[in-house]
Structures are given as structure tokens and as C-alpha cells.
Amino acid sequence: MTDQKTMHETATNMCPHYEAAMELLARRWTGLIITTLVNEPARFSEISTAVDGISDRMLSQRLGELEEIGMVERKVDAARRPVLVEYVSTEMARELTPVFNALQEWAEKWMPAKIEA
Amino acid sequence: MTDQKTMHETATNMCPHYEAAMELLARRWTGLIITTLVNEPARFSEISTAVDGISDRMLSQRLGELEEIGMVERKVDAARRPVLVEYVSTEMARELTPVFNALQEWAEKWMPAKIEA
After folding, report:
1. pTM (predicted TM-score)
2. CB–CB of A99 and B104 under 8 A?
3. Coarse DSSP helix, strand, coil percentages of chain A, rounded to the nearest 5 percent
4. Which residues between 9 and 38 in chain A have a beta carbon less than 8 angstroms from any beta carbon of chain B?
5. Chain A: closest CA distance from residue B10 (Å)
6. Mean pLDDT score of chain B, rounded to an integer?
7. Contact B26 A25 (CB under 8 A)
8. CA-based Rg of chain A, rounded to a whole angstrom?
């Protein structure tokens, strides 16, 4: 081991905050759902369209998790007929924008449109 | 839908390169393994220590995937006794550094050390 350590790690351990953030993004679909909602509020069906391949059941579960963590709010406009239900990103989610922008830049350079499973 | 679109999305679709990059990071442990190796080359046992909770079988599988994608190289120093086998990040992996740095900054502000499963 050398003395060169980035801010992500101490000599023996990953930074626990960083670890938790990476674990969050490692939940399948979570990053793409947040990306969609950081763009603009969306209805369930709109998120489902934007996040290609996700099942309604999984989307429902992920939105529930993100609400609990405080990254997504469910807004109901009862004055509308039919009632409008939209999912809205919180500041916590929107502040991931620099991460998403950096990932976009990297992806354009390095990532083929489909990787092998 | 509004006209406001970020670079991640067109009107109906996520950018496929971005989608592929997010899918890559959504493979459990992958982000933490890359983070570890971007820091410095490491032996199998060192990665296993840095990435808390990963099994040897899973680490082996992930390293194989990352070699195939071209993000990790396996270097063997046969002149050493015992033979030294290290995993080294490629330029493709190292250029994720801005993503990791942005995530670290976000995590320090927003992420408790453990999130609820």
C-alpha cells in the first residue's frame, strides 16, 4: 500500500458515506429513475416510458424507496380531473446533477450503447 | 412534457450511452471495485478487504466482467516469489474519477453512512 489515497478511502476502509451512495446507485433502475425526475416531474407512466424495460411493480417499489430516503415526492393535484399524480425530485436528488453530467460525458466517450450482460 | 430536456434524454428516450453506463454502475459492487482500483493497483485480497461484504466468488465474477469491458487489467509479475498478481485500472476506468469525486461530495452532504435496505 502507498501513501497515495484519494478522498474515497482511508488506508483500510472505503468512506462509509461514499459506500452508501454507491450502494444506492447500485440498485437496479434507481439511477435512471432519479435522472428522469431530476429532468422534470413525471407521472408514473412517463417514468415507465423513460426507463426502458422496468416493470410497473419494480418502478412502484423503487419510487417507494426513493420517497422514504427523501429523494422523491409524490404530488397529488386533486383539483385536476382526472386527479394528477406526479413524482417530483427533491433538492437531495437534484444535487446529483454533477454526478449525472460527469457520467454522461464519460459514457459518450467510453460506453457502447449496449454492454454485454 | 416541456421543451426543457437535459443532455441525458431526448423527448422520449434516455441517451443509450448514459443508460449503458448507469447499468454498468448498477451491477452490485462494480462501482466500489472500480473506485478501489482507480486509487491504486491491488491484489485480489486487498480488493476484497476494501469492498466490505463482497464474496470471493462475486469479486472474481465482477473482475472478469471488468476485464472483458476493458476497465481492469490483470498483471502478473512472475519474477516475484510468490508470483504477484495485481489488478490495475485502465484509462477507461480512471476517467470515471470526476464521477466518483462528484458522488463523494454529494455523499458527504446527503448520505447517512448506512441506508435502509
Report:
1. 0.86
2. no
3. 50, 15, 35
4. 9, 12-32, 35-36, 38
5. 10
6. 89
7. yes
8. 17
For the stretch B56-71, pLDDT in tens is 999 999 999 999 999 9
d(CA A59, CA A48): 7
Q: Is the ipTM of this complex over 0.95?
A: no
Residue A111 to residue B45: CA distance in whole angstroms: 29
Q: Name the β-bridge partners of A14.
A: A9
Which residues from A are below 8 Å from B14, CB to CB?
32, 35-36, 50-52
Chain A's closest residue to B92, CA to CA, is: A110
CA neighbor of B31 nearest in space, from B51, B58, B9: B51
Give strand pairing partners of A73.
Answer: A88
Whether A58 contacts A29, CB under 8 Å: yes
- Containing A74, the helix (H) or strand (E) segment is strand A72-77
Q: How far apart are the first and last CA of chain A?
A: 33
What is the model's pLDDT at position B112? 81
Chain centroid offset of residue B83 CA: 26
pLDDT at B7 over 60: no
- The residues pairing with A74 across neighbouring beta strands, listed in sequence order, are A87
Contact in structure between B51 and B36 (CB atoms under 8 Å): yes
Cis amide prior to A41 (ω within 30 degrees): no
